[in-house]
Amino acid sequence: VKVFETEDAIRGGADEIDMVADLGLVKSGDWEGVLEEIKAVKASCKGRILKVIVEACLLTCEEKQAMCRIVSMSYEDVKLFREHCSPDVRIKAAGGIRTLEEAQTYLELGADRIGSSGLVALVQAQSNG
To answer: What would the pLDDT profile of 14-41 be if each residue is shown by its tens digit?
Structure first.
């Protein structure tokens, strides 16, 4: 539904899209579902700005932290943060990074750190191989 509404808004001339993160998915801890929904809406924005509304007053501290990681996970976001944050602000790309190539891309776009426990096992396997 959110993708349809986004496409309709774009056809109607919208320059920016606001979406509310699915509270049911957040509360159930379905972080992959939250990410997939955001990615789907972002793709339907066709380059326009997407603002993800996080209803922080309804979330626990842990849920807020998870949402921060999720909404910061796209290549475009890392690039945007690097372009607009002061040089002393460090950017960490985290969540859903599953390959060394993805990690390298984030670093090239301006991330200072990568948060991905899955990559540790991959690097260890390659060095033992």
So the answer is: 999 999 999 999 999 999 899 999 989 9
Q: Is 17 helix (H, G, I), strand (E, B) or coil?
A: strand
Helices then strands, counting H and E runs in the chain, come out as 7, 4
Q: Which two tokens stand for residue 76?
A: 């475009």
Q: What is the DSSP letter of 74?
A: S
- How far is Cα 99 from Cα 128, in angstroms, rounded to an integer? 17
Asked if 19 and 2 count as a contact pair (C-beta separation under 8 A), the reply is yes
What distance in Å separates the CA atoms of residue 25 and residue 14, rounded to the nearest whole number? 27
CB 93 within 8 A of CB 73: yes
Between 22 and 98, where is the model more confident?
22
Q: Read off the pTM.
A: 0.58
